[in-house]
Specification:
The structure is a homohexamer.
Chain A lengths: L4 E3 L5 E6 L13 H20 L3 E6 L2 E2 L9 E12 L2 E12 L4 E14 L11 E3 L3 H20 L9 H7 L2
Parallel strand pairs in A: 1-8
Antiparallel strand pairs in A: 2-5, 3-7, 5-6, 6-7
């Protein structure tokens, strides 16, 4: 039985949002939690474009916030699927912001969100594979294994000494 | 000059939320991004109770979602400060949900959010220390060092071989 | 047949909210209606914890707003069941606010919300009793009768001269 | 110095809302707290039309919910000023709902909200008087005294034996 | 078979809204899109009052925004049905705003929204007629034909030379 | 003095939204007003990318809704500037929706929104020109004159007989 394959491009999603007063703190910076929320929606749509099924977030890798985003700025969120593992879907998302009056565009953060696709009974179900089409997509595809090991170790579901890919980082 | 010290308890924050239709996907599960948003608000309040200043989120450690939360369930979010480092504040947050009609309460996830306190010019500023008062608080306090090393490595700001605490995990 | 009994503590609910721009008037004070809304959610959760069933608000006693709550302040809403009468549940809720930068905490208001529990056909149904465990809970429990008479009189469902408990207030 | 006078009609406000999923409980009934919130906005606008200044809610009299309002129904909220006392403004609000497909219109509840007008320093300030123009407005105007006594007694700011108007209800 | 007839008055809807921070741009003007949204809700309720069925928006005629509406102002939206065509319902809506502190009331814009009523299978279904009761209602009723031709031409569903009513405007 | 010129591409904006329960009517169709609101935000961002200043909506041309958008569908809104006239900016926006589980993508509607750029005193100010780069952009650019005449006629600010471009449509 042949398996369905999609390109990374078919899963791309672009969201644009404006920073409104209710989403900022008293210094007029966008709350980190709101960015995490937007990134979850964008990546869930990317995962949904791959799976053509409902998906649920199973994990978010560490997110660092590089630059505060200011009230009134325009935020662009771009996401895509990087690799799939049976029933789980790793997605990558990047956030940029732009202050239109001063014409400054700045990078805010990126993240990996992982989803599981569910069948009509709410049980995890097999998803199509993605096939990288260029060098950058291939690099993301290859790195997915290492990120997956780190996720399992942090979640306490893999022993560090079994994580061959990661171990190499620490032992030279 | 003596430095201000607070107890972990002084920073505790409890939020209760109900899962509404707009926050769920088509299977009536609460979106992961909404939980991340609520956890950010709770931990920002905890960090604010410590610093008595505006705070901004600088990072969120990996979050795994153990159990999907259903429409109509009551969600309890409990957060507190675990340790501070000069200008940064590590907080811990736990999420539980409860289905009232069936009287089932289930654990959903936990996470570490890190904040920086800002002075009136928006620059990072020194924060009070927290002092652990019991064994569990001490354990969280001690673990903060290791989590901080992992954060710096993942963010590309520390070399793995310099992370003494983490290295021990991989090399025995 | 024995009847179910719960403690007041089992019904306690704590909500924490931040005052956002959309909820304030032009003087940056939180609208009274928003507080009433939050108090309704907190007390409905307390009533739901008692009844383990859907509940509907049937009345709110007079609410006085002591201190205006300012934009950016952190609001804490604590609610609990005080007493039940067959199908109805009286709850009590207290609201405090805190300005973190100035470290000032101030009392805002309190209120009694009454609910009815509904069965699966949407009809009022019998609810468990609460048993006061300390002096303060006993006082709230005892006062519930007098508050109930006042409610019925104001709603035009009881004649003032039948309200023995209340009458004593006016005739000495 | 002559004092400004307005008619009740000049303060009338009509709001129309639709009941949306996020405002209902699991039985598809509109939450009481949402109605209280809408009534607060409508009456605040009525009070603002009288005072031409910012106003803050100082109290809400007891509210009873007669009929549950269902998801999708159209809610009409009508408010007006009934009487003023130096710096405070009593308003009356009535809520009706309508199910368009079945052509049924039903009364939901009414309430009295009291506001204080604030000057530019946020201090209570004198407001115009309202002049009743018909029998119904006169009745509301006259009843305001008795309602004010009850408010003060419940808030603990007047002794029951001083409330002459109310006392008559209990002692015949 | 006799057909149901309603008056224009039976379809009147009044909405009152306040301009909140989240709905304004950086110059504190209400976004045009929010006004279009409010006008859609008001006219949908008017169309629903006529049809006593669910309705969907099928078109909005050109809308011009005469005066910017400012943060904090009170917006009044009044709508009514002007004429029906088998399954479609033309509605008219006018928007006024008022700045309470300065006592200035100004006209903002008006528009025609057209709806189709749907039966329980989601198919367009016949609606009652409206009968104009005064000169202004008659004028709106009569003008509906010309507006309908323009709509069909712009939507590419009628050839300009077939639009007899409109043609007269251009050829004299 | 040389004038600033931008390409159409520099003004492109893509928004992705999901249809949530609160934005639908009782037949689970997205409200037309919500689409109009989203289109206004997307086009305002496009106009802001051109002008690098705050912009206000001055008019929306007739909008026809071709296909109802269903609850849960993913909506893509793409906008760009088509032409500018001194201080005003015409933008074009297209809306597509997609039902992920059934893999059906359908066109919903398109529209022209016109904005004016404001200087720091809130007065209309000159904006850069856009230069079409391909046939389709040129066609939109050329059609802008005719659309502008129709807008002015409908708004009552131009006599039909002066609208040379439009007249040709009716008189052959």
């Amino acid at each position: 039985m042949s398996e369905e394959v999609k390109t990374v491009k078919e899963t791309c999603t672009i969201m644009t949002e404006m920073v409104l007063p209710n989403d900022t703190n008293t210094l007029n910076n966008l709350r980190g939690g709101k960015i995490l929320h937007w990134m979850d929606i964008a990546t869930a749509i990317s995962a949904g474009k791959l799976a053509n099924r409902p998906v649920v977030t199973v994990s978010v890798d560490q997110v660092s916030f590089l630059n505060p985003i200011k009230l009134g700025d325009v935020v662009t969120i771009e996401s895509k699927v990087t690799r799939t593992f049976n029933t789980s879907i790793e997605t990558y998302v990047e956030v940029w912001a732009e202050n239109l009056p001063t014409r400054t565009k700045y990078r805010c953060n990126d993240a990996y969100y992982t989803f599981v696709a569910l069948d009509s009974n709410g049980k995890p179900t097999r998803v199509p594979r993605v096939e990288p089409q260029n060098e950058e997509e291939q690099k993301q595809f290859d790195g997915a294994l290492k990120r997956r090991q780190l996720r399992l170790i942090i979640a306490g579901r893999m022993k560090p000494e079994e994580a061959e890919e990661l171990k190499a980082l620490f032992v030279q």
